[in-house]
Amino acid sequence: NAGVTQTPKFQVLKTGQSMTLQCAQDMNHNSMYWYRQDPGMGLRLIYYSASEGTTDKGEVPNGYNVSRLNKREFSLRLESAAPSQTSVYFCASSEGRGGGYTFGSGTRLTVV
Amino acid sequence: GEDVEQSLFLSVREGDSSVINCTYTDSSSTYLYWYKQEPGAGLQLLTYIFSNMDMKQDQRLTVLLNKKDKHLSLRIADTQTGDSAIYFCAEEGSYQKVTFGTGTKLQVIP
């Protein structure tokens, strides 16, 4: 039972490069989320998808785009990476109210 | 907007009890959660409490909720070195929106 799988685990980008972070869940959850975690700032929501076919902005969406490819997969794209996007990115999924979140193990991204 | 606050750091001796505190502002909170994050890993759901409950116990973990004061605590009995981690409080309010605290780093001294 894999849960939430994120790839890659580590990535170094040059300023201006683009990349896509992949996330897949095998729990048949409707809702999926992308967070970034920075020291002293906890988790900040970038984008979420309440169900297949829908996406919405979170607290810090600027510089990011997302795609809910199907029920299982939710990807996060950085079109033109900036050093301010250096962070640890977590994908999570949820079965709904009261179910809590299942998190992936994270992608550690450095933009130089 | 909603806010969830936690102290940044807690140090306890192995075998003692740990109490991690959290305050929140959202009066419409329905569920409150505790997550654990070990180094290099994602967050793992430890336990949760529904807002109409005062207490929930799960083995070594006890969650206390004071809804009037919007105060949540997590007590870990007989704290072990394996409990060293960052603990996040989170509250779920309207429209299933979840707000996380900044995390409390628990250090267990052998």
Structure described in brief:
By secondary structure, chain A is an all-beta fold. Helices cover 0% and strands 53% of the residues of chain A. In chain A, strand 4 (31-38) and strand 5 (42-49) form a beta hairpin.
Describe the overall structure:
The complex is a heterodimer of chains A (112) and B (110). Chain A is mainly β and 112 residues long. Chain A is 0% helix and 53% strand. Chain A has strands spanning 4-7, 10-13, 19-25, 31-38, 42-49, 56-57, 64-68, 74-78, 87-94, 101-103, 107-111. In chain A, a hairpin with a 6-residue loop joins strand 5 and strand 6. Chain A is globular. The model of chain A has no long low-confidence stretch (mean pLDDT 94). Chain B is mostly beta strands and 110 residues long. Helix content of chain B is 0%, strand content 57%. The chains are: A mainly beta (112), B mainly beta (110). The interface between A and B is medium-sized, with 20 and 21 residues.
